Amino acid sequence: MENTVKPGYGAVADAPVEHDNNAVSEGKIWQVITASSVGTVIEWYDFYIFGSLTPIISTLFFPKENPVAALLSTLALFATGFVVRPFGAIVFGRLGDMVGRKYTFLLTLLLMGGSTFAIGLVPTYASIGLAAPLILLILRLVQGLALGGEYGGATTYVAEHSPDSRRGYYTSFIQTTATIGLFVSIAVIVGTRFGVGEADFKVWGWRIPFLISFFLVIASYYIRRKLHESPLFAKAKAEGTTSKSPLRDSFMKPENRRLVILALFGATMGQGVVWYTGQFYAYFFLQTVLKVDLVQASIILCVALLLATPFFIYFGSLSDRIGRKKIIMMGLLCGALFTIPIFYGMKAFAGPITEVTPATVDAAGAAVPAVMKALTPNMPALIALVFCLVLFVTMAYGPIAAYLVELFPTSVRYTSLSLPYHIGNGIFGGLVPLIATAMVAWAATQPSGFLQEHSIYFGLVYPVVIALISLIIGTIYMKDIRNVKIMD
Question: 322 lies in which domain range?
């Protein structure tokens, strides 16, 4: 029996539909997925190379006298890109719901690529002083605004081309792009480091991954500009049913506002912290806390990502058959229960830390801290542990694009799904490295012996608590929408 439930009002679809809403050929769908995914991978690549290079950037764009303060300042700069993502969602979501999906994410692609390329040209603190971090801040804000508009456009565009009964499967390919973008950023960074040597990489080679972005963006723009508008939006525009005020319709209408709030606190908030803890903070933790070498930490994360990425597709496809909610909630539950034990395991398998370069004083009289390094990291064990973290990410993240698309009507879909997604991922998730690092630094200074002894894990309390809150809200209030017709 065909399911004709209208999206946007929490209705439950108990079975896949027999007659799909979209009559788009499979070849056309794959063309859409490829063009959307390539651009989105590049945008995530642009966004994450800054975070992946945080340890180096902190030494070049801030005073060296206090390395902890410099690291926190750089993480704060990284975090600003996440904080402004909801504003990008509002600006570009409105544009996408009024003008169109295609042209909006073409614009976000160019903004992201241009700001990333510019970061590779910014002089260091030694050259221009405080102007260096100020320019970085402005460029990070532009990156965050652009990314705030990208995800909603790509997800909506793919979903509005997909048949109802396979929406979870097709949109799950967009869900792989953030992980692939992180993987590509790490691969380029490691390849550049090997190519120019470690010493030159820390001086000027780190700029190369940023500058490469220019060529990637031009190629992606060429691919995307050949696409047509999504059939559902084109139909809505032709019939005059697009929203004249997407912001008002998304957030002032009580039924839609309730769904935006539920999507945030019952799904994307928890999914965001699971994602950034399992992938980005794990990578950061290996390098800065466990002192695993950059190349070894990169190998650990990249192998884990390669092994786990197919599960985005698996869980997206599975959600077409058993529902989105069950899988998302299981990902949140696993993240809440097992994250802290896994990080304890990472510490055990990273091996003892030794001093490879003693503390000194440079020519200017500033203290240069000792360089520490993990002696014998157990690579297979660390890969297995990080794989588990990423597996939780695939469960929480794989089906969520289809869930959000089905939650909101076409006229305000871009705006309505973008805002809760980017608050959940940008604010709650994106701030994980900064908040966790600050919590670790605070715990290390406390008189409590227990807190000091376990201080390196104290930052994990934040993502675990957020995941638990989202799990409780989602379990109680979220309904399992799947395979509904998404046309108004």
Answer: 26-477
